[in-house]
Write a structure and sequence with these properties.
The complex is a heterodimer of chains A (529) and B (412). By secondary structure, chain A is an alpha/beta fold. In chain A, 35% of the residues lie in helices and 26% in strands. The N and C termini of chain B lie far apart (54 Å).
Chain lengths: 529, 412
C-alpha cells in the first residue's frame, strides 16, 4: 500500500452546457487508498464532474486535464475509463430487471468461450465469487427484479469489482438504503481501502461522510471551494454546511412591493402514494397555505416529495390514492384531472422543460397556446390570427429572444425555452402558479428576468408556489419558506431576515438523518418477512 | 416563416416533386396511356380506398407513430355487413350504409377503449383486431363471396355524376362533360377567391401576408392542376362519385388537423405526450377518438371497396393497412408522431397509386411492383431521417467508426 500517492488529479475542469457554466475550473486530488467525499448542493456540479471523469461527457466537450495514475487521460466513452479501472455507480441503478444477477454483472463484459458464445458455467461461478466479496448471499441466477434495492446496490458494486476496479465512484449510494444496509456499505468501502480500491463518495448525508471519508471536497456553483482533510481540519456538519452554502448574495434578485392579501389556496392534510409502489407514501400529511401576492418557497432535497406534492395538487397529475382537501379562496374544490385544475386557475410548470414541458418540434406560438386553446378558439376551431397575436404578445411580454414566434422551440437556448414554458403557463391566466425549479439550467441574466416575471405575477395579486433547490434563490424571492423532507413538512420559516441558508440546510440534513432511523424500524419489519 | 418551410414542408415539397417526376416518367414510359382520360378515372377509382384510409391513419400516426393494423379486416367486415344487409336481407341500401358506418364506429370504440383506457399498445391491440375482425368476416360470410350488389349501391364507388346536359359540350373539337368542366372551373375560382379574401382580411388586421409573387405562382400551379384533372375527366364520363367522397373527406380532415383544437391536441400528443398532458390535453380521450375515427374511416373505405368489387368477399382489404401506413410515411408523417399533414398523406397515396397503375400498364408483374413500392417507402423515410440530421450521415459514420474501434480492440 503506497498511501500518499496521487491516484487521480483533475485540473481546472470547465464544462459548459448551452447557456450555463456547470463546472468552472474545478480541481480535485484523490490519493490512492482513500475515501474521498464530494459535497455540494443539488446542481452544484458534483455529478457533472464525475461524468467528465468517467467519459460520459467525452474528452473535447470540457476543458482541463485528467491525470490518472500519473498519465494524462482522454476518455471518450465509459468503456475507456472502465478499462483503466474507473467505475461509476449512479444513483439510479443501471441494472436490467429481467436479467439474472450474473447476466447483469457481466453485461457488456461477457464471459466468453469462443466467438461470442457465452460460457455460462464461468459466468455463474465468477459471479458467485464477486458476490461473496461484497457479502451478498444470493444465487447468481436470481433475477434482479426479485431482490431488494439494497442488494441491487451490492450487485452494482460486485459488478464494479468484476471490472477490476481501482477507483470506485458512488453517487448517493445510500439514498434508498436503510441505516443498517447503509452502514454495511460504508464499512465495505473502508474494507476496500485495504484492498487498494479508492472511492469517491457523493452524498448528502453528512453523518455518513464524517463516518467514513478521509477527505472532503466541497463544490459550490461549479467551483471547488475547499478540501477538508480528516485529522487536520475540523470535520463537522456545521463546518461542511458552511462550505456548501456560504456564497455571497449580491443584487441577484429584483425588488418587489410586498402586498400580501387573503389566503388563496389551502392544501390540507395532503397525502399521496407512489403510483407504482403503491404502499409507499411520497407526500405525508402536508398542509400548506398560500396567500394572494405571496411567493412561497419549498426547499428540500431531490426526492423530498416537493414535485410530487405540486403535481398531485395539479389535477392529480402524479400519484395514487391521493387524499386531503383543497380550498380555493375558502371554497373546497376537487381537481380530478388537469383540465379542471387549469380551469380553476391553477397551473404547474414542470422542472423538466424538455421532457415534460415543451413540444420541442413545434413552434413557439403553438407551444404557448396549448395550455388553454379555448382562449383562441370558437367552437373548437382555432382562430390562427388571434393565436399569432396572443403568442406574439406573450412572447414579447416575457422577453423571449427570437426573430419570430414561428421558430421551433428546439432551436432556442435554455433560458428562452424556460420563458416559453412560463409563457405557456401564463397563457392559461392562472391565479396560482406552481413553479418547479423555474431557473434550472438557465444563465444568470435569464434568471433575473424570470424573477422579474414572478414578481410581476404576485404584484398583480396572484400567488406563486416555488420549488427550488437553490437556497439563495428561495431566500431572495420567497416571503415564506417551507422545508420538506422524505414526504413530510419539517419546517415553515418566514423570510424576514431570520431565515438563513445554514438554518434551512440544517433542517434539510438533520431531518434526513432522523428520518433514516425512523424509517428503519418500519422497513425492518417488512424486510424480515 | 422560413424556418418552418425548411423543416416542416421540405419533405412534403420534395415528395410533391417526386410525385410529379413519377407521373412524367410513367407518362413517357407508358407512351401517354397513364394520362388518358379513362385511366385517370381508373386511377381515382382504384386508389380511393388508400386515400380514404390514409385520412384516418394519419390521425393515429400523429399521436406518436401509432398505427392501426386492423383496417384491412375492418374493410372486409364492413363489406360483409353491407353484403348481408343489402344482398341477403334485401334491406334498403341507404339504411344499410348508415348501419355499416355504425358498425365501423362500434369496432373503433372497441379498439379505442382497450388502447386509450386500458393501455394496450396500439400495435398489439390492432393486431388482435386484425385477426378478430377477419375471423368474424369469415364467420358472417361462411367463407363465401356475396354478389352482386344492386346498382343503387355500386354507384357509390364506380358511378359517375350524371351530366346536366345529356349531349355534353364540345370544346376545341372534343366532346366534354359539361358538369365536370363547370365544377372544375368553380373549384378553381373558389380557391382563388378564398385565397384573395383571406389575404385581404389578414392585411386588414395587420398580419403578415405571403409575398404576392409566390402567392400568384402557387395559385396558378394549383388552378392549372385542378383544371387539368377535370379537363381529363370531362373527356371520359365526368366526375366519379367517389371523387366527391374523397374531396369531402380530405377537406374535413385537413380542417380538423389544421384548424381545430382537437387537431392541435393530436399533434401535441405526438410531439410530447407528457407535456401535452401537463398542459391539460386529455390524452386518453384523444387516443380514443383517433382510433374510433380510424375504424369509422375504414368503414367508409369498406363500403366504397365493396361497391367497387360489386361483392362482399371474405378476403377483401388484405394489406390495405400497409398501403395507408406507407402513404402517410411517404407523405412526410414522422414515425415518432407529431408531424404530418393530410396533404402529405394524399401525395403519398398518389405516389403509391401512380406507381401501381403505371407499372401495371407497362405489364410489370405485381411481384416486382411490391419490391419497387417497398423501396420507395424506405427511401422516402430515409430522406426524412437523414434530413433531420442535416445530411451529415452521423449515424452511419458512427456505425462504421464503432466497428473500426472494436476491430482495433480485438487486434490489440
Amino acid at each position: 500500500m503506497r498511501l500518499g500517492n496521487i491516484l487521480l488529479e483533475m485540473r481546472n475542469i470547465t464544462k459548459l452546457f448551452p447557456g450555463v457554466k456547470a463546472l468552472d475550473e474545478v480541481n480535485i486530488q484523490v490519493e490512492e487508498g482513500e475515501i474521498h467525499a464530494l459535497c455540494g448542493e443539488n446542481g452544484a456540479g458534483k455529478s457533472t464532474l464525475m461524468k467528465v471523469l468517467s467519459g460520459i461527457h467525452p474528452f473535447g466537450t470540457y476543458e482541463g486535464d485528467i491525470i490518472y495514475q500519473g498519465t494524462e487521460c482522454r476518455f471518450k466513452t465509459i468503456k475507456d475509463s472502465e478499462r483503466k479501472g474507473i467505475v461509476i455507480i449512479h444513483q439510479e441503478l443501471a441494472l436490467v430487471p429481467y436479467l439474472s444477477i450474473a447476466e447483469n454483472m457481466f453485461l457488456g463484459n461477457e464471459q466468453i468461450k469462443h466467438k461470442g458464445v457465452i460460457d455460462w458455467d464461468k459466468t455463474n461461478s465468477e459471479c458467485a465469487k464477486y458476490l461473496r466479496m461484497v457479502g451478498l448471499h444470493e444465487n447468481p441466477r436470481t433475477l434482479i427484479k426479485d431482490i431488494g434495492v439494497g442488494k441491487q446496490q451490492l450487485v452494482e458494486i460486485a459488478k464494479a469489482l468484476a471490472k477490476n476496479v481501482k477507483l470506485l465512484i458512488l453517487d448517493e449510494p445510500t439514498s434508498s438504503l436503510n441505516e443498517q444496509d447503509a452502514k454495511n456499505l460504508l464499512d465495505m468501502l473502508i474494507r476496500f481501502k485495504g484492498e487498494g480500491i479508492t472511492s469517491i463518495l457523493i452524498s448528502h448525508k453528512l453523518n455518513e461522510i464524517s463516518y467514513c471519508s478521509d477527505k472532503i471536497t466541497i463544490i459550490r456553483d461549479g467551483k471547488t471551494i475547499e478540501t477538508l482533510v480528516k485529522g487536520k481540519d475540523e470535520i463537522s456538519e456545521p463546518r461542511i454546511i458552511r462550505g456548501m452554502v456560504g456564497r455571497e448574495m449580491k443584487n441577484r434578485f429584483p425588488a418587489r412591493e410586498h402586498n400580501i392579501g387573503d389566503v388563496s389556496l389551502e392544501i390540507r392534510d395532503w397525502t399521496v402514494f407512489h403510483p407504482l409502489f403503491t404502499e409507499r407514501k411520497v407526500v405525508d400529511n402536508v398542509s400548506i397555505t398560500l396567500r394572494k401576492g405571496e411567493v412561497v418557497g419549498i426547499s428540500g432535497l431531490i426526492g423530498a416529495g416537493r414535485t410530487e406534492l405540486c403535481m398531485s395538487v395539479f389535477g392529480h397529475a402524479y400519484g395514487h390514492n391521493i387524499s386531503g382537501r383543497l380550498l380555493l379562496d375558502g371554497k373546497e374544490i376537487h381537481l380530478n384531472d388537469i383540465p379542471s385544475a387549469i380551469e380553476h386557475g391553477i397551473m404547474y410548470v414542470t422542472e423538466d422543460r424538455k421532457g415534460d414541458g415543451l413540444i420541442i418540434s413545434d413552434s413557439i406560438k403553438h407551444n404557448i397556446s396549448l395550455s388553454r386553446p379555448a382562449f383562441i378558439a370558437k367552437n373548437g376551431v382555432i382562430d390562427q390570427d388571434l393565436e399569432a397575436i396572443k403568442g406574439k404578445a406573450f412572447s414579447a411580454e416575457l422577453g423571449v429572444k427570437t426573430p419570430t414566434i414561428e421558430q421551433l422551440v428546439g432551436n432556442l437556448s435554455g433560458g428562452n425555452q424556460q420563458k416559453v414554458l412560463l409563457a405557456k403557463a401564463l397563457f392559461a391566466e392562472p391565479d396560482i402558479l406552481m413553479l418547479d425549479e423555474p431557473t434550472r439550467g438557465v444563465d444568470v441574466g435569464a434568471k433575473y428576468e424570470i424573477y422579474e416575471i414572478i414578481n410581476k405575477m404576485v404584484e398583480n395579486g396572484k400567488s406563486v408556489l416555488m420549488i427550488s433547490s437553490e437556497l439563495p434563490e428561495l431566500l431572495g424571492m420567497a416571503d415564506r419558506i417551507y422545508v420538506m423532507n422524505e414526504g413530510h413538512l419539517v419546517a415553515e420559516l418566514p423570510n424576514d431576515g431570520t431565515a438563513t441558508q445554514e438554518k434551512i440546510m440544517g433542517y434539510i440534513l438533520r431531518d434526513s438523518n432522523r428520518e433514516i432511523s425512523d424509517t428503519q424500524n418500519q422497513t425492518e419489519g417488512v424486510t424480515q418477512e | 416563416m422560413k424556418k418552418k418551410l425548411q423543416s416542416g414542408n421540405l419533405k412534403e415539397m420534395s415528395m410533391l416533386i417526386a410525385l410529379i417526376i413519377i407521373i412524367v416518367l410513367f407518362a413517357i414510359l407508358t407512351k401517354g396511356t397513364l394520362l388518358r382520360p379513362m385511366n385517370i378515372a381508373n386511377l381515382i377509382n382504384q386508389n380511393a380506398y388508400v386515400v380514404i384510409l390514409a385520412c384516418g391513419m394519419l390521425l393515429c400516426i400523429l399521436t406518436g407513430g401509432n398505427i392501426d393494423l386492423s383496417v384491412g379486416s375492418t374493410v372486409a367486415l364492413v363489406g360483409a355487413c353491407a353484403g348481408t344487409f343489402i344482398i341477403t336481407w334485401k334491406w334498403n341500401p341507404y339504411l344499410s350504409i348508415v348501419l355499416c358506418l355504425l358498425v365501423g364506429i362500434a369496432l373503433g370504440v372497441w379498439q379505442g377503449f382497450w388502447i386509450a383506457y386500458v393501455g394496450i399498445p396500439p400495435f398489439i391491440c390492432t393486431l388482435s383486431g386484425m385477426l378478430v375482425f377477419r375471423g368474424i368476416t369469415l364467420l358472417i360470410l361462411k367463407g363465401l363471396t356475396l354478389a352482386p350488389f344492386p346498382t343503387a349501391y355500386t354507384q357509390l364507388s364506380t358511378g359517375f355524376i350524371p351530366d346536366i346536359r345529356a349531349e355534353g359540350i364540345t370544346l376545341f373539337g372534343t366532346k366534354l362533360n359539361l358538369l365536370c368542366i363547370l365544377v372544375g372551373v368553380v373549384i378553381a375560382v373558389a380557391y382563388v377567391v378564398l385565397q384573395l379574401k383571406n389575404n385581404a382580411t389578414r392585411k386588414k388586421k395587420g398580419y403578415e401576408t405571403e409575398p404576392l409573387v409566390s402567392m400568384l405562382i402557387k395559385m396558378v400551379i394549383i388552378c392549372a392542376a385542378i383544371l387539368a384533372v377535370f379537363w381529363k375527366l370531362a373527356q371520359h364520363k365526368g366526375i366519379p362519385t367517389v371523387l366527391i367522397i374523397l374531396g369531402i373527406l380530405l377537406l374535413v380532415y385537413n380542417f380538423i388537423t389544421q384548424k381545430t383544437v382537437m387537431g392541435r391536441h393530436l399533434y401535441a400528443i405526438g410531439g410530447n405526450k407528457k407535456a401535452a398532458e401537463l398542459s391539460g390535453v386529455k390524452t386518453k380521450k384523444m387516443m380514443f377518438l383517433a382510433y374510433t375515427n380510424m375504424s369509422f374511416i375504414a368503414a367508409i373505405a369498406g363500403l366504397v371497396f365493396a361497391a367497387r368489387l360489386n361483392s362482399s368477399s371474405p378476403v377483401a382489404g388484405q394489406s390495405f393497412e400497409m398501403d395507408a401506413i406507407a402513404s402517410c410515411f411517404i407523405g412526410g408523417a414522422s414515425a415518432y408522431g407529431g408531424t404530418g399533414t393530410i396533404g402529405g398523406a394524399l401525395i403519398g397515396a398518389l405516389i403509391m397509386g401512380t406507381l401501381n397503375n403505371g407499372m401495371s400498364i407497362m405489364g410489370i408483374s405485381s411481384n416486382t411492383q411490391q419490391v419497387v413500392k417497398g423501396l420507395v417507402l424506405l427511401i422516402a423515410v430515409a430522406i426524412d431521417v437523414l434530413g433531420k440530421s442535416n445530411f451529415n450521415l452521423s449515424g452511419i459514420k458512427a456505425m462504421f467508426s464503432g466497428k473500426a474501434k472494436t476491430a482495433e480492440k480485438k487486434s490489440t
